[in-house]
Amino acid sequence: MNWQRHALCRHGLVLATVLMLAPGMPAQAASLAQASGELWSDKPKRVETVDPSLERLPAKPAQNSAVKPDRYPLKLKRAVPYQVIDSVSFMQEGRKYRLADLEPIPTAKTCRSADGQRWACGLRARVALNRLLGGNLVRCAPHGERDGFLLVECVRSGDKDIGGSLAAAGFALAPKGKARYRDEEEDARRQKSGIWADTAAAN
């Protein structure tokens, strides 16, 4: 029985070989390989994972979350002269600016010193703003508009607040309901600086 099974296996192997070598079979195999591409190869072949016909968009640069936005994005031109209107308002290149959260000292205001002498404190206040602006790199933060003026918070070299400097010198007023420069104004009152040297203003 074992020799009969062995003979049948050999017969089947021969029959399969004959069928593979039958006329027309290599041509069919070749056409199949041509239609579906190479079935296998002994050489490395690059496989395209992305359709080359599709448009490839440029990669967006990664945003650096550590970079903080500029608090004072408005840079005034140092080489262009300022036109000072009053102690908290000025103009440059036709644009009018006003320091936010402050009220001006009227330019025509006069003050009286302790010895009774009158002096032009309003004009002195305007000159104080002119000195703070002139020759300095001034950076500002816009805070809306009012009466044709752009309300700004400005600093000069060394990040010194221009509005705070004016209030501390007694040359600008903190309006009622605004607490931002109230401490600077109180210091000027105690030291009798600027307009607070006037006996009428101090009372």
TrEMBL record:
Region (Disordered): 182-203
Origin: domain of life: Bacteria
InterPro entries recorded: SNase_OB-fold_sf (IPR035437)
SUPFAM superfamilies assigned: Staphylococcal nuclease
Signal peptide: 1-29
UniProt keyword annotations, A-Z: Signal
Membrane-spanning parts: none
Name this polypeptide is given: Nuclease
Taxonomic source organism: Kumtagia ephedrae
